[in-house]
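Lab notebook, page 48
Experiment: co-folding of the full assembly
Goal: obtain a model of how the components sit together before planning crosslinking
Operator: M.T.
Materials (sequences as entered):
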Amino acid sequence: MRSLLIVIAVVGLLSACKQKETPLPIFGEREFNGQDTTYHTIAHFSFVDQDSAAVTNNTFKDKIYVADFFFTTCRTICPIMKTQMKRVYDATANDPNVLILSHTIDPEYDTVGLLHNYANMLQVSSDRWHFVTGVKDSIYKIAQTSYFVTAREEQAEPDGFIHSGAFLLVDKHQRIRGKYDGTREADVDRLLKDIAKLEEEGE
Amino acid sequence: MRILPVVVAVLVFTSCRSKSDVKMEQYYNQGEILYTRYCSNCHQKDGKGLGLLYPPLDKSDFMDQNFEEVLCIMRNGKSTPTIVNGKTYEQPMKGVTALTDLDIAEIATYIYNTWDHKRGMINVNEVTNKMTKCEE
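Observation: model returned without errors.
Model output:
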């Protein structure tokens, strides 16, 4: 009787593995209108990148992208985040569908020229990794309301700002599909897996 | 009676190592903790740096040739370009002003005896002496 139970349990486990993997969650509020569901999407934005090129939602049309918030003079978590984001950049080098969007939260200091130098020093291409600056309030607002992360000035902090170390995974429909701690290698491993998962999702 | 094994253990442990080895180990271990807290975010735990933003420490001709300046940079920072292994690093480094002479001696002992470096222990007295000669 007992061995039968074990066999059933093993068969059960094996078949459970064959089930389709659960899709990535879709973050934020949603509205139901009859049969249609409207999901939270990234609000309209318009920033300028390290090549002085305009970067808008349209830049990421039909692309998957990973977004974060940082500033170039930050010594605490940003260098770790940039090390980890560079991993994402390297891992997706042969994938034209994946882009990266890093917003500075210190636009007064982080000018286009400075971001240009920063990207060069990180040895990354502006085709795939946009470092953007813009109106400070617009950056803080899109962080809080579109990406659900904290970004603001805070005099009590050693470098003068408080911001989240999160990486946000955004799908081709500008919906947030994952949030990861950009300072933790294991979390970024999970992000890389989720990017692959998202690519398989198709339309 | 239970103290006996402890005594024996301490004797065995200390008899094999000279006082300077023990001191070196204290410096090195504390240096690793301080390095992890103050330096590794940028220079990385493995000392390899990041792109042209943060220079490597694991193999560094700059470190080999500018030992005294390296001590000063830890506390005072550096705003001029630094050439390491033939590459120019322009991103300024802010100093960690809170570091004491002992902290600097411990970090120096750690970074100069890890990866490719085998300089030996860097004593706090040596650091105190050199720190008075830093260019501000």
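Interpretation: The longest strand of chain B covers residues 82-84.
Next step: discuss with group before ordering constructs.
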